Amino acid sequence: MITLYTWTTPNGRKVSIALEELGLPYEVRPIDITRDEQFAPDFLALNPNHRIPVIVDSDGPDGKPITVIESGAILLYLAEKTGRLLPTDARARSDAIQWLMFQMGNVGPMLGQAHHFLRYAPEVVPYAVTRYSKEAARLYGVLNTRLTGRDWLAGTDYSIADIATFPWIARHDWQGIDLAHFPEVQRWYNAIAARPAVARGMEVGK
Prior knowledge:
Blueprint: E1 2-6, H1 10-22, E2 26-30, H2 41-46, E3 54-57, E4 66-69, H3 71-82, H4 90-120, H5 126-147, H6 160-169, H7 183-193, H8 196-203
Parallel strand pairs: 1-2
Antiparallel strand pairs: 1-3, 3-4
Helix pairs in contact: 1-3, 1-6, 1-8, 4-5, 4-6, 5-7
């Protein structure tokens, strides 16, 4: 059994979507970050970086429990555990990992800053609003280019790269982005949103 410590954030939803896609049994332990539950000693013992999501798999690689932190690492762990959502062909696998890292290093951090300065900052910071709004639009442009002529970020295979990126794009309105300006991203987004496992994964923790 996998225990998922999570909240209703894009990073948390990556893992619940993957678990639903893979059909793995899991239980949810909500960590309410609006009440600083990620700083509780019990959770800190799981992740010293006090960030969700975290999984604890009672059936780890050696048959013993394993704790995995960091959403990208969790997706890789689940893909390797099941042999799914990550291509086996070396070139396609490399593509999937590259675009997973693109999400981890660019889409998540930059769109997260856009969320903060556009929605949550206690005062308007014009420089930050302009900087992160422009960067959000640039990243959507990169994704639009990448998706031109291919169904998924890794080409012909739906993978953990798509799962990692989708929950961030699901909040495009938070980022001031109109998907109509990025038609390839919109097509890709609609295709993923229509998957039943994705719909279930997006509801986890609500």
